[in-house]
Amino acid sequence: MRKRNLPNPLKDDFGKERPVIRILSDRGIKQAVQEGFLILNPQLNLDNPGNRLQPATLDLKISKVDSYYNPGTALGNVCGDLTLRAGQVSWISFVDDINFSVKNGMTPQGSFFFDKFLDGRSSLLRLGGVVCGNPDPSVLLGLETTIFHYTPNDLHFDSNERIAQAFISVMPFAETYLVPFNVGDKPPYTKQGEKVRALDMGVQAENTVQLRALEEAGLMKIERTNGKKFDAWNGIVLLHAKNAFRMKKIEGGIRFSERAKYSHGDLFENVDIRNKYDIKEGEHLVLEVEESFDLSDKVGISVFNNVIGRNVPGAPELRGFAPPNLTSGDEMFRQGQVNLSLINKRNSWIDPGYTGMMTAFPKLLGKSVHKGDIVGYGQVFYFPKGVERPYGFKELSSQYQKQEEFRVAAKTN
Description:
By secondary structure, the protein is mainly β. It has 6 helices and 25 strands.
């Protein structure tokens, strides 16, 4: 049988309408700092990064909630505290800042080899916070973004708690973009580009053949409870609903730092999805999916819930998904405003080295959930050299390794 080719992060993008997505590994992030491409504040201790540097991301600490607004009415309030209000969209500032060197990280055409996009940490997502994938580009000093908190409970933070994570995406052939050259000629590579291509990075699997190649090489194992192989479409792993839980209303809200003290039954109640269940406004629904994962240190998966094929940085390229209803009726229009704010938001990131089950967090109003429905889309990344410190590494404070059923947090952090 012919051996399938694994994804290659240094395969050129020439002639492609949209380059494949690459992200730096933990090793690559340290290399980018050493080479002067990546500027972090506070500085990263390269010899002892602690749990700030995860297998392929940088953890971000909350500084404050600057303001919040209702997505249906757009009425906003300035606050400056550390609380995500129930049912509101909040503007967040982080302690951390991430920038790229103009001198070292820019192409001759004036574009960057690098970019960043954000996701919530699993512990935040399980409690209903959905982080906007793109930090605000208008903020020149500091890192800010929005968090959508469509749940029945306020969520209270202590200062400097780790609630989000940043990916560093890299475009290793950026110096050749928009530069004309004849087919067959050598592309206009630069010394700067060669330095970028020397960084350790992972690359998105482009098609299902590559997914099967990763599986056959023993680099990832994805099993469904029905004993079938995992479903895939255009290089995306499809996740299916198995069990559902709805968050209860908690008087006074939930303190993030004390989440481990709650039992599953304290915060969630079972929902029957054997028949169609319609997602209601203000609900936070958590779904266990049929798929379980056993990932090597060379594979990570970015999971999306609500995808309509829009061209958003970092989002999987999917076509044919209907957009949310935006009719002129007041209720439908208001629901559409809420839904549009959630399109292409990441569900979570499954780190290289993770073993266990997976949860999904459907949010779209007017959407129903039925047992067996597709409720998540997994965008697989392959790191040829593996990450330095996979999930479960002692210093990473990994809470969910070998998790067999949904829980809010580990009993010890």
